[in-house]
Amino acid sequence: MKIYYIKFDVEINDNRFPDLKNAQAFCWVSETTPEAAIVKSEYFIKKDDIKINRIIQYPYEVNHNDFEDKDIGTENYLKCKKEGLSILYLGITTTVKSPTKFSIENKYQTQNTQEFLKKWKRLKQKGKCLHYSATNNCDHTIKSHSIQKRQMLSSISHNGHVYAISTDLSDIKRNAGAPTYKLKGLDQVSTFQGFCQKHDNELFTPIDDYPLQPTNEQVFLYSYRSVCREIYMKTNSYELCLESINKEENPAIIEFLKATIEGTEKGLNDLKKHKMNFDKSLKKKDFLDIEYVIFCSESKPNLAFSGLCYPYYDFQGKHIQTPFDKNKRLQLLSFCSAPMESGWGYIISWHKSSSDIGQHYINSLATATYLKKNIGDYLFRQTLQFENLAFSPIWWEALEQEKKDQIINYVYNNLSSFSDISPDHLSSGPDGICKWNFSYVKSNY
């Protein structure tokens, strides 16, 4: 990531310096774009309970050499490089007679990150069977793998381990907030407590015990499990934010949590409506309600994944649906890797209620083929949108550091709370890294 330097005109109310004036905030920010750097800086300045009047110096990229012979500049640059952000406030007061360094006193009690992550882990231990016919007898949930384990995760593992995003606080701090991929055992990856033993076995045997043929039922079940996992994860996120906002005092954090709660609630409600469509089809065993395209590769996979998205832009960067449109339910697509008799398949699927967007999405990918673009690169960039993703240790460890950095920066930019989704996020980004070759394509529409 790049480091940007920004300067703000601010107002600081501090009882220690009642006549403080001409205050400025100097920010060193590690981000992927100037726009994200501004949003991140503004959030943390407001979090310090400081009012922003205007931007004096818009963000520009800096490096260590820009602060040669400038001790304070060098100190803050290095701090930003280590922690992702450094802010220096400067003002004039008659209270002190010489340049003096003080820490900002925040009057609000706020929760620390460690406590937040503890709550998240506690919520992940809670289970609920999401089967449409679940009863009180489904009280004992199991850790189900949302990525097929026996043939998919195992096929990319080395000594029973794969690389996946770390949620450890030490890793988050060490990488200045950017994602860190860490070796994890297979039982630590992609699991969620969304089904009891009985319903998990009844439902998913066709995909857990057999390779992808494909049949409509198999593709339906891969998509259904992704929907259930996302509901499970979003429910936990929603409950965590509700619990946190009730204990929070800082206005900036409360504002952030309110926005997060609103977005999560909208996404969760939409997901539940989509699940109702899947449940109706499942009750009738009407697997013709699923539509799909599968890109089939005869080579060994180097990653495994499962995820959902409401695509706002297609593979050509064209806007196709709008988030938070209260008059319209977002259409949903499912993405998953699955083992086949020979090689593996990249599944893109959707319930027929999302046909308009699903078919348009695939047509935009076909356009990339017509333009002689590498479909593997497009699909790889799509896959990097998902946190439910695991890399082969042999593949990841052999990758050049420059290519690892490309992946990490791309993932950070697309998952960051401070960045907007770019229209070209699928048409540009990491190229020539995954080396995917697809021998043939299967489709049912």
Concise synopsis of the structure shown:
This protein has helices spanning 34-47, 71-83, 113-124, 149-156, 169-174, 197-208, 216-245, 251-284, 355-370, 375-383, 393-398, 401-415; strands at residues 2-11, 21-31, 51-62, 85-92, 141-145, 161-165, 181-185, 191-196, 290-297, 303-309, 333-339, 344-351, 389-391, 440-443. The chain is α+β, with helices and mostly antiparallel strands.
Topology (SSEs and partners):
Layout: E1 2-11, E2 21-31, H1 34-47, E3 51-62, H2 71-83, E4 85-92, H3 113-124, E5 141-145, H4 149-156, E6 161-165, H5 169-174, E7 181-185, E8 191-196, H6 197-208, H7 216-245, H8 251-284, E9 290-297, E10 303-309, E11 333-339, E12 344-351, H9 355-370, H10 375-383, E13 389-391, H11 393-398, H12 401-415, E14 440-443
Antiparallel strand pairs: 1-2, 1-3, 2-4, 5-8, 6-7, 9-12, 9-14, 10-11, 10-13, 11-12
Helix pairs in contact: 3-7, 6-7, 7-8
Describe the structure.
The protein is α+β, with helices and mostly antiparallel strands and 445 residues long. It has two domains: 2-92; 115-443, no CATH class. It has twelve helices and 14 strands. It has helices spanning 34-47, 71-83, 113-124, 149-156, 169-174, 197-208, 216-245, 251-284, 355-370, 375-383, 393-398, 401-415; strands at 2-11, 21-31, 51-62, 85-92, 141-145, 161-165, 181-185, 191-196, 290-297, 303-309, 333-339, 344-351, 389-391, 440-443. It has a six-stranded antiparallel β-sheet, with helices on both faces. The chain has a four-stranded antiparallel β-sheet with strand order 3-1-2-4, with helices on both faces. Helix 7 (216-245) runs antiparallel to helix 8. The protein starts with a strand and ends with a strand.
